[in-house]
């Protein structure tokens, strides 16, 4: 219990200390017009209040990741707490802040465009394909997981196919309509339910004196699955997630002022880390150690854990509200997954989005492909999602590192987590069955070599960016926009 409480306190302190340092180091320009004003189109570029932007950002990034991931990561034991706290403060929140701010400085650009600008044109095409794959997998995962939870909640009285269809209808509307018409109106309600359900579970854990294990570096996984690299691909959204790099640019297009960036981007990642801590602690404490948790996961995946934890801690009535709060998380990330994909494709092919029929042209094929993917096994999708997710996060961290180097600022804050995660993603794809299936020890060493090669390419690109004509770090706003 002490470890759990201390971890929550550290996350909060991280926002007021390291988060404040990151914000001051980057240097917000409060007088500089943001894309919400300079590029306003009343569809994707719409100025909104900080509280509303913060709630939308939290709900965008907090899909099933900070709940399902920590629940499955709980199998490793309290070492999961360390990754959530350290990863969230020094990697995930830095990642989200830099992605959001660099996007604001570059007309609300999404990650593929930023990767092309800072890491080279080849990376733009690679990241564009990779990001769209991630968003498609995310949107699909975030259709099936809430559909299963709803199906269980109503005891199967509504067919699973009907629930999936209704979720798709909502996704289509939220993808093509202006952001302030549906997302901007329903998210405050959804946000309240999310916060209440998470705080309710956390409060009951403390009130009942739940047997949350104390900190240890020992790997408790029943099957002795290696902590490195698997833990970093199991707990993603609660510590570091590339999916956030696809969501922050959505809010960069609705942010009123650069001074709002720390609460919106850094702060909401800390909030997600707290949610992850609560569910990891609940999973560890309520299922008879890690073996018991494994049995529950084997029966119904993480969704069953959510239902059982909510009912055990909050009772049938309030537990149902808690489950609804969890259902909202993936739905409010799935809708913006497709919205983000639409915006990225539209930017890539230079197709304006003011007219609704143009939005349908881009979004239609995405929903067809996603519906086909709903027939694929959830756990298989999740494995590919996890690797694609962390690869995207790593690219975003390197974009942030390049920006800070060019700006003559402290690039170490992003380069350390970027290097660490580069080594991890190479280790994962080399050693795991979805990749090359090599010996783990061999994969560790090969990953070091590949990481060094990547750093060499990165430094080559830095030299290229700093030679010749001056590199345009930030988009130069036309003089009339400054009037």
Automatic annotation (TrEMBL):
This protein's GO CC annotations = plasma membrane
What the entry lists under Pfam families is as follows:
CstA
Bilayer-crossing regions: 75-98, 126-146, 158-179, 186-206, 226-243, 264-290, 310-332, 360-381, 387-406, 411-430, 442-460
* Any one Gene Ontology BP term: cellular response to starvation
Q: What domain of life is recorded for the organism?
A: Bacteria
Report the residue ranges that make up the CstA N-terminal domain in this protein.
2-199
- Which keywords describe this protein according to UniProt? Cell membrane, Membrane, Transmembrane, Transmembrane helix
Entry keyword annotation includes DNA repair:
no
Keyword Plastid listed: no
The membrane-topology field of this record reads: Multi-pass membrane protein
Report the locations given in the UniProt record: Cell membrane
Question: Can you tell me which family this protein belongs to?
Answer: Belongs to the peptide transporter carbon starvation (CstA) (TC 2.A.114) family.
What is the name attached to this protein's record? Carbon starvation protein CstA
Q: Which organism is it from?
A: Staphylococcus massiliensis S46
- The organism's taxonomic lineage, starting at the top: Bacteria, Bacillati, Bacillota, Bacilli, Bacillales
């Amino acid at each position: 219990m002490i470890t759990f409480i201390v971890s929550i306190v550290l996350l909060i302190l991280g926002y007021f200390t390291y988060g404040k340092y990151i914000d001051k180091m980057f240097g917000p320009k409060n007088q500089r017009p943001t894309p919400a004003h300079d590029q306003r189109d009343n569809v994707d570029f719409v100025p909104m209040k900080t509280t509303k932007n913060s709630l939308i950002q939290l709900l965008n990034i907090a899909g099933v990741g900070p709940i399902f991931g920590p629940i499955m990561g709980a199998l490793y034991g309290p070492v999961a707490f360390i990754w959530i706290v350290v990863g969230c403060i020094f990697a995930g929140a830095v990642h989200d802040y830099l992605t959001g701010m660099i996007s604001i400085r570059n007309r609300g650009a999404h990650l593929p465009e930023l990767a092309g600008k800072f890491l080279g044109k080849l990376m733009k095409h690679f990241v564009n394909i990779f990001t769209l794959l991630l968003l498609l997998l995310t949107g699909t995962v975030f259709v099936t997981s809430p559909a299963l939870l709803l199906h269980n909640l109503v005891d199967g009285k509504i067919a699973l196919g009907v629930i999936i269809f209704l979720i798709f209808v909502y996704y289509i509307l939220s993808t093509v309509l202006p952001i302030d018409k549906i997302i901007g109106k329903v998210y405050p309600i959804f946000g309240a339910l999310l916060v209440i359900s998470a705080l309710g579970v956390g409060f009951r854990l403390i009130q009942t004196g739940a047997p949350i294990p104390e900190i240890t570096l020992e790997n408790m996984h029943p099957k002795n699955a290696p902590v490195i690299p698997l833990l970093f691909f199991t707990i993603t959204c609660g510590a570091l997630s590339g999916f956030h790099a696809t969501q922050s640019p959505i809010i960069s297009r609705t942010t009123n002022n650069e001074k709002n960036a720390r609460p919106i981007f850094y702060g909401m990642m800390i909030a997600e880390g707290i949610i992850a801590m609560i569910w990891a602690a609940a999973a560890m404490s309520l299922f008879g150690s890690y073996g018991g948790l494994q049995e529950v996961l084997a029966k119904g995946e993480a969704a069953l854990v959510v239902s059982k934890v909510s009912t055990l801690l909050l009772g049938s009535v309030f537990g149902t509200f808690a489950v609804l709060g969890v259902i909202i998380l993936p739905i409010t990330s799935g809708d913006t997954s497709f919205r983000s994909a639409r915006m990225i494709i539209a930017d890539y092919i230079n197709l304006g989005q003011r007219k609704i029929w143009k939005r349908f042209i881009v979004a239609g094929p995405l929903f067809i492909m996603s519906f086909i993917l709903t027939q694929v096994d959830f756990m298989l999708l999740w494995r590919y999602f996890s690797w694609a997710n962390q690869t995207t996060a790593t690219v975003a961290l390197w974009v942030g590192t390049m920006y800070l180097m060019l700006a003559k600022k402290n690039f170490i804050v992003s380069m350390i987590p970027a290097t660490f995660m580069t080594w991890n993603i190479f280790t994962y794809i080399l050693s795991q069955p979805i990749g090359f299936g090599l010996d783990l020890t061999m994969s560790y060493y090969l990953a070091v070599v590949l990481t060094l090669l990547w750093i060499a390419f990165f430094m080559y690109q830095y030299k290229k960016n700093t030679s010749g004509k001056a590199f345009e770090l930030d988009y130069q706003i036309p003089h009339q926009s400054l009037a």
